[in-house]
Design brief:
about 140 residues, alpha+beta, Aminopeptidase, 7-stranded mixed beta sheet
Length: about 140
């Protein structure tokens, strides 16, 4: 069963060691960077993605203090576990957490234009480009 878990003193190192495929370099920040970002930016919520007790990925979301909107900031599945539906399930679980918070009506994410796999996943979940490009990444929005 796929589940999300807090990143803690017990699992942070394993999360940091997760790897994406060489073809995905440049699409996602290193998990070590994301964990440091979460440490210094308390609105960032880092989560480990597990299949039962096996660590398979990492995601991070948060309520941006600048625009007051939820953003999914990171999603990655270790190269050994890709193409098994973990990314989709992790996204569905994160979206479920976000939807429980009554302060929002939309969630955003951004993606490199060359990230065809990411684009396909996001659009299949109902995200649509909102017309913005931030730091070279296309911004997607999902209303709920």
């Amino acid at each position: 069963m796929v589940r999300l878990a807090e990143v803690t003193a017990d699992n942070w190192y394993q999360v940091a060691k997760l790897k994406f495929a060489d073809s995905q370099k440049g699409f996602v920040a290193l998990n070590s960077f994301s964990l440091a970002q979460a440490h210094y930016m308390p609105h960032c919520m880092p989560l480990a993605v597990y299949d039962d007790d096996t660590l398979v990925g990492f995601c991070m979301y948060g309520l941006d203090p600048e625009d007051g909107q939820y953003w999914i900031m990171r999603l990655m599945v270790d190269e050994k576990f890709q193409s098994r539906g973990y990314g989709r399930k992790a996204m569905e679980l994160v979206l479920g957490i976000i939807r429980k918070d009554a302060c929002g009506h939309a969630v955003y994410l951004s993606s490199e234009p060359e990230n065809a796999w990411g684009k396909a996943l996001y659009e299949s979940l109902g995200f649509i480009p909102d017309g913005r490009v931030i730091d070279g990444e296309i911004v997607y929005k999902l209303e709920y």
